[in-house]
Amino acid sequence: MLKKFLAAALFVSLLAPAAGVAASAQAPPAAPGQSADKDIKPASVMGEVTAVNVGAKGLAVTTAAGNTVLVMLDDKTQFKRAKPGSTTLADATDIALSDVSVGDKVYARGRVSADHKSVPAQLVAVLTKADIAKKQEHDKTEWQRRGIWGTVTSLNATTKEVTLSARTPEGTKPVVVDASGAKIDFRRYAPDSVKFADAKASSFADLRVGDQLRALGERSADGARFTPEEIVSGSFKTILGTVASVDAAAKQIVIKPSDKPKQTLTVVVTDNTNLRKLDPQAGQMLGFIALRAAGGGMPGGAGVLMNGGRPAGGAPPQGRPGGGQGGGFGGGMRAGGGFDLQEMVDRQPPATLADLKPGDVVIVSSTTGADPTRVSAITLLAGAEPVLAALQTQPRRGGAAGASDLGLPSGIDLGIGLP
């Protein structure tokens, strides 16, 4: 009942200025943010339904940039339910306003008011929340089944081939991605953004050595080559550091990077940040991975990591059965011994900024932005003390004990998740 009241109240507040616009010969100028919104065009608005009022014949639609537009309807407005993935309305079905719900995505066509706050819609195309969830689950399955993930190690501009150090069930291997196809959909994460929705149309020319890259397509029989249909890339960094201060109100923390302890880095936590607390087993596992990637052996002579989490002797750490489910590192094991680091991270318990305190060791992944002293976190992992302890067992490059460079090696890169 409360939700219905709030929705009705929202429409009352939106209808008043909209009526004023209709009665006035001169509409007020659009707010700077609203006028620059890419989802608000002269003849259309696209966004998520945040309120529905069937009696008042209106929808409140909020764009990805956070601007709200009143979609005004009448008896001539057409409603179409679009099919996920379709680029036309040829196969859309007729629906009614009563079929539209909060959380649905809509495209409303009509002449947008001069202040960009309302549009009398001739057509409303709807992608329902249920259809969106179904499509997202399907896409995630496809990227897991037919995808490849790795770090770009070389680029051939002449042949448009990308060599990846790719994660496979058998370990990290070089794979050549043939990006010469004319119909490949390139996307690239935007600087300072943690949302895939903000990824921009891209091209082969935007790729750089060191980028993280995911591709969807088909692998050759021998696994050495990959023919992509989609390529998503980004310049990311993963940082190991110690918390210096926490500002929960500002949604940010200040850390001292372990490889540059005299410097500080401000880490912004957004609503999209994957904030987790590593359990002890997962923390130990990441320590093992970091130590192996840095070229060292396991603490206490446990040997090097093999088969995605098994020490050289063959038994899983801590005596845990390989391929176990649930928390800890076991949840990241795949059939055949492969290890999915992101899957392990997602199995860890959620955390909040209130759980962090000065002195905690964290791992932060982010895009590479314009300000080197400030990043927006894609993933923030607390409980990383075992990782720091493992790297501190590495000898200095000069031969002395102790770590001279405690930055995370390339074996731990949490930046690019599934689109």
What does this structure look like?
Mean pLDDT is 78; it is low at 1-27, 298-339 and 396-404. The protein is 17% helix and 33% strand. It has three domains: 2-24 and 31-127, Copper binding periplasmic protein CusF (OB fold (Dihydrolipoamide Acetyltransferase, E2P)); 136-234, Copper binding periplasmic protein CusF (OB fold (Dihydrolipoamide Acetyltransferase, E2P)), CATH 2.40.50.320; 236-391, no CATH class. A hairpin with a 7-residue loop joins strand 18 (252-257) and strand 19 (265-268). The protein has helices at residues 2-23, 32-35, 129-146, 280-293, 341-346, 385-391; strands at 40-41, 44-53, 58-62, 68-72, 78-81, 93-94, 105-109, 118-120, 123-127, 147-156, 161-168, 171-178, 185-188, 200-201, 212-219, 225-234, 236-247, 252-257, 265-268, 274-277, 305-306, 310-311, 361-367, 374-382. The chain is of the alpha+beta class and 419 residues long.
The protein's oligomeric status is single chain
Mean pLDDT metric:
78
Principal-axis shape equals globular
The total strand number stands at: 24
- What's the gyration radius in Å? 25 Å
Write down the secondary-structure element order. HHEEEEEEEEEHEEEEEEEEEEEHEEHEEH
Q: How much beta, percentage-wise?
A: 25-35%
Our measurement of the CA-to-CA distance between the termini, rounded to an integer number of angstroms, reads 36 Å
Structural class: alpha+beta
What is the tally of helical segments? 6
Low-confidence stretches: 1-27, 298-339, 396-404
Q: Give the total of domains.
A: 3
Estimate percent helicity. 10-25%
Give a short account of the largest sheet: 9 strands, mixed
